[in-house]
């Protein structure tokens, strides 16, 4: 009677017993499966866990003999013995049948006579058929019922929900492990740290301006066409390459050197010598933290760049005839937004420098 005792317990109590007896993977079972597995585990390890106080009730029920029916019911359930009266009734029925058969063979009767069995014979034949009916049934289902005392029940909605939650948790943990092992998070943090500075903003603005100018000044020439491949369904592809011979012409160097002088070289020289952040720091701190490379003031750089853009490209200043109107117009046409785009880049860098200075002060 140990199995009904386990069924009467709640699932947390069953889990506690399973944990005390080191039942593996007991969290994966629902209550019905856990009852069967725990009962088998406790029966197999009875010598080990019989001393536990929490399992004393279980093993006491396991040791008690199973209940049986009362003596009166067992006596009633027994098959009644055959009495001499029943045997005589059977003999009478058999003799009457034999007489009818012999009479039917020797002399044909004018009209058939139907012999009805006596009440005793009828009762005897009914009891015989009742006793023979259970003997004809196969014993395989009875054995199966005895072997499997706990029939398998369909999973409850709560068990299905728990299984789905467990699988979802395992999937999420595996995805997190894959994402962490890929190293993308560390690379993203490194990229964010590298771009979160005024220097990075200035480099992006200068790359945009120089790339637009190079795209306009370096033409793309047609070189050849690859033959088509019919087997792989690849059509003919024309190949175009940049014309590097433009580097030998003044049509490239005049606009590029004008942009380099106005937007990069002169602002950097001014930011090196007019360094307000360097002057504002104390002498002791400057001695400790001054690196070997020269430092540039980003605010001075953007202010000088905006002034030069306004003077050169806004008022067509050609550095006393050194540059032609072609070079000035080519730079304005190549950079997105022209002189207004150059001023916008200077304004973005200046605002970033002021914001960074405020953050350092706070």
TrEMBL record:
The entry's keywords: Membrane, Transmembrane, Transmembrane helix
Compositionally biased intervals (Acidic residues): 97-106
Ranges that cross the membrane: 256-278, 299-320, 340-359
Residue ranges with Low complexity bias: 112-141
Keyword NAD assigned: no
One annotated Gene Ontology cellular component of this protein: membrane
Segments of this protein annotated with the region Disordered: 61-142
Protein name in UniProt: Rho termination factor N-terminal domain-containing protein
